[in-house]
């Protein structure tokens, strides 16, 4: 339970970092970031899984890069449901997904140590 809670909080912090780095990616408060992290996780676990299965051939063809497009779409969908979390345009969602992926990769590497 605590591991899940820590990941949730770290995802919210990552969203706040992305909001500072990516133009068009806005998170109003830590509460909005916490809710957005929860919604993004839920959307990724449901709709994201289905889209990743459907687009698997394209993902293989692009050596995995198409997953960034799917993740950007999941971020945009999540922004529809969370007040205080807004993504203005697909480019902001795409770059936000890329930066978010990098932050999560670094976080997982640091957590192993």
Tell me about this structure:
The protein has 113 residues and is mainly alpha-helical. The chain has one domain (28-112). It contains 5 helices and 2 strands. Strands 1-2 form a two-stranded antiparallel ribbon. Helix 2 packs across helix 4 and helix 4 (66-81) crosses helix 5. 28% of the residues are buried.
How would you summarize this macromolecular structure in one to three sentences?
This protein is mainly α and 113 residues long. It has five helices and two strands.
Placed side by side, the strands forming the largest sheet appear as: 1-2
Low-confidence stretches: none
- Largest sheet features: 2 strands, antiparallel
Order of helices and strands: HEHHHEH
On the 0 to 100 scale, the average pLDDT is 93
Structural class: mainly alpha
From the N-terminal CA to the C-terminal CA, the straight-line distance is 20 Å
Number of helices: 5
Round the Cα radius of gyration to an integer and report it: 14 Å
Beta-strand residue fraction? 5-15%
DSSP summary, beta strand count: 2
Shape: globular
Kindly give the count of domains: 1
Helix content: over 70%
